[in-house]
């Protein structure tokens, strides 16, 4: 590990210490590392138009909005190659929250999220993405009748 010395204005350091304290950090170093990781990740996401990764799209919507649930379901089916899972919560009589886990092309994931979040009746939403790299690996499975290897794509998360 490398030790770094940084000069920071007093008011900025006080604000950073308050930030760390509110989030339960036990030392400044881990807080700085997390901020650097986040900045590097966000930069990679913004610059890599052909990148792949995983993401979670959370959104709150009015399930009483005319045909909204059906439109949201159709959008997920149109992007079935990206969708890993969907969790649906009933917040109250009229409001639901969905959390969709996605994997694949980050550009396609962003397009899917934009389409969902632009639907009338979707009140709040946010996409959290993590870049990765796709690796194709061959595996033998015991239940294979022919003894052939099968190729699988695996997503490796980058740091």
UniProtKB/TrEMBL annotation:
Protein name per UniProt: Putative nickel-responsive regulator
Function: Transcriptional regulator.
Keywords annotated in UniProt: DNA-binding, Metal-binding, Nickel, Transcription, Transcription regulation
Keyword Nucleotide-binding: no
Cofactor binding note from Swiss-Prot or TrEMBL: Binds 1 nickel ion per subunit.
Region Disordered: start-end pairs: 137-159
Co-factor(s): Ni(2+)
Residue intervals of the Ribbon-helix-helix protein CopG domain: 3-40
Family label: Belongs to the transcriptional regulatory CopG/NikR family.
Molecular function terms, GO-annotated: DNA binding; DNA-binding transcription factor activity; nickel cation binding
Extent of Basic residues compositional bias: 147-159
Binding, Ni(2+): 77, 88, 90, 96
Pfam families the record matches: NikR_C (PF08753), RHH_1 (PF01402)
Gene3D superfamilies documented for this protein: ACT-like. Chain A, domain 2, Met repressor-like
Coiled-coil positions: none
Transcription factor NikR nickel binding C-terminal domain: residues covered: 54-128
UniProt-listed GO biological process terms: response to nickel cation
Stretches with biased composition (Basic and acidic residues): 137-146
Organism: Thalassospira lohafexi
CDD domains: RHH_NikR_HicB-like
Keyword DNA damage: no
């Amino acid at each position: 590990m490398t030790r770094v010395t940084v000069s920071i204005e007093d008011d900025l350091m006080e604000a950073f210490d308050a930030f760390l304290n509110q989030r339960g950090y036990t030392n400044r170093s881990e807080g700085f590392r997390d901020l650097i990781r986040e900045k590097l990740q966000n930069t990679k996401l913004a610059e890599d138009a052909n990148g792949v990764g995983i993401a979670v799209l959370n959104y709150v919507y009015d399930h009483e909005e005319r045909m909204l649930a059906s439109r949201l379901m159709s959008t997920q089916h149109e992007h079935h190659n990206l969708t890993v899972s969907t969790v649906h919560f009933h917040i109250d009589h009229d409001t639901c929250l969905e959390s969709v886990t996605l994997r694949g092309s980050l550009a396609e994931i962003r397009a899917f999220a934009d389409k969902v979040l632009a639907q009338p009746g979707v009140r709040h939403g946010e996409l959290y993405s993590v870049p990765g790299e796709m690796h194709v690996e061959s595996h033998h499975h015991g239940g294979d009748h022919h003894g052939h290897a099968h190729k699988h794509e695996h997503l490796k998360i980058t740091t």
